[in-house]
């Protein structure tokens, strides 16, 4: 098997780790997991005040963009609460095929681009000239500003409905400090995960930190690859995007000596 004998350290959130681990194990890898990202729904009175107005105004938007599966899981719960039947005439978009598939479970057909990033979605013809359109972006707190900035520069009115927050798990520093293995590669699936990994590594003794930062790092795309190199990771394995297929393809290419 392509990854036989390789030990991979996964940094995915716990609920997303299992499917990724299964893909790796099916190819012979040993897999450890130390999550560097935790997804928490925004709840309570503050969330009600910030999220509910966008949901009640759903029929006033020309297009709704979901940036991730987490945005679907969190956002559609709100939508289902106030809209037993979706308003007619809207267009739905998803960043990445996995997000589009998550919307299909709600009987929503969403357009998506091949790549799993904002730039690919913005390249769709639908968004070349959205002048005067109202667009709602369903996302997590503090996400990348690219969608809003570009769409507003093209004349759209954009609202951001922030549904969840991403944090570093409190257990991450101790878990990494106690990690007894020297993995053959470390996988990260986003720039924020990379940032959390970097800050966690910074707290380790220098020898151990240098060792892990010299370990091949699997990342999703050129943007995160650039961030990884700037952060001091010396061996970066660049996948085309964060999908399991693309990440596995890049990892197997590396394992075969094509780094």
UniProtKB/TrEMBL annotation:
Catalytic activity from the UniProt record: hydroxymethylbilane = uroporphyrinogen III + H2O
Domain of life: Bacteria
Pfam family, one: HEM4
Keyword terms: Lyase, Porphyrin biosynthesis
Domain called Tetrapyrrole biosynthesis uroporphyrinogen III synthase: residue spans: 21-249
CDD domains cross-referenced by the UniProt entry: HemD (cd06578)
Keyword Lyase: yes
EC numbers for this chain: 4.2.1.75
Listed pathway(s): Porphyrin-containing compound metabolism; protoporphyrin-IX biosynthesis; coproporphyrinogen-III from 5-aminolevulinate: step 3/4
Top class in the EC scheme: lyase
InterPro entries xrefs: 4pyrrol_syn_uPrphyn_synt_sf, 4pyrrol_synth_uPrphyn_synth, UROS/Hem4
PANTHER family hit by this protein: UROPORPHYRINOGEN-III SYNTHASE, CHLOROPLASTIC
Role, per record: Catalyzes cyclization of the linear tetrapyrrole, hydroxymethylbilane, to the macrocyclic uroporphyrinogen III.
Family to which this protein belongs: Belongs to the uroporphyrinogen-III synthase family.
Protein name per the record: Uroporphyrinogen-III synthase
Organism: Biformimicrobium ophioploci
